[in-house]
């Protein structure tokens, strides 16, 4: 195998980066994603009843494997795949492997072997989608967890998937967005957090969304995903220095 003789260029296509989008239940994650042209929802747990979208119900791990093969085969018009939610998909995978191994819990095999087998089973088809020519977004809910810092105990909002699955999914995601609410001069608004904080998880390997800062989600009929795309491509500029919306007091 010949080794490279030139440096590769960073990708400037948003859909070359797997995206993790998480936020509280019913905040509007699926509605936001439905604004993406040619997006297919792999719906693992309902919740899309009020949204006009292309939907493939997924109720078992075997159904996901079949859908993944059909997507990779390419006989369709979809450009982006949204797994909504990845939490439930991970649960389907866990249940599939427990039945296959004839165990009642991954830890039954001891020494972490059960968890490793579940992760291996999950990552094979997941990586095929992530590395394919299609954009991939994985959706999770947000849960509050107490974190002890050197000076105080704080509440941090993190994806709700089980830690052993988060630890294999998160490194694949080039962009992590936290869908949040905040109080502004115009009242409560919904925003995407693009920068990491001690109060949430977010980040962007390209630095493009981080450089912009918090992204305010505007009311319909404005296509907010089109705005996100423009921000990533440098076509939509900062409205104010630092562009950070204050963190709200949660109910």
Description:
By secondary structure, the protein is an alpha/beta fold. It has one domain (14-232): Rossmann fold. Helices cover 29% and strands 25% of the residues. Strands 1, 2, 3, 4, 5, 6, 7, 8, 9 and 10 form a 10-stranded mixed beta sheet that branches. The radius of gyration is 19 Å and the shape is globular. The termini are far apart.
Largest sheet: 10 strands, mixed
Average pLDDT metric? 91
The computed structural class is alpha/beta
Flag low-confidence runs: none
Span between termini: 58 Å
Give the ordered list of helices and strands.
Answer: EHEEHEHHEEHEEEHEH
How helix-rich are the residues, as a percent range?
25-40%
Number of strands: 10
Number of helices: 7
Question: In CATH terms, what is the architecture?
Answer: 3-Layer(aba) Sandwich
Which structural traits does this protein have?
Rossmann fold; ten-stranded mixed beta sheet; 25% strand; 251 residues; alpha/beta; globular; 7 helices
In a few lines, what is going on in this structure?
This protein is α/β, with parallel strands linked by helices. The protein has helices at 29-33, 61-73, 86-101, 113-130, 163-169, 208-212, 224-232, and strands at residues 19-23, 39-43, 54-57, 80-84, 135-148, 153-159, 175-184, 187-193, 203-204, 215-217.
Blueprint (SSEs and pairs):
Layout (H helix, E strand, L loop, with lengths): L18 E5 L5 H5 L5 E5 L10 E4 L3 H13 L6 E5 L1 H16 L11 H18 L4 E14 L4 E7 L3 H7 L5 E10 L2 E7 L9 E2 L3 H5 L2 E3 L6 H9 L19
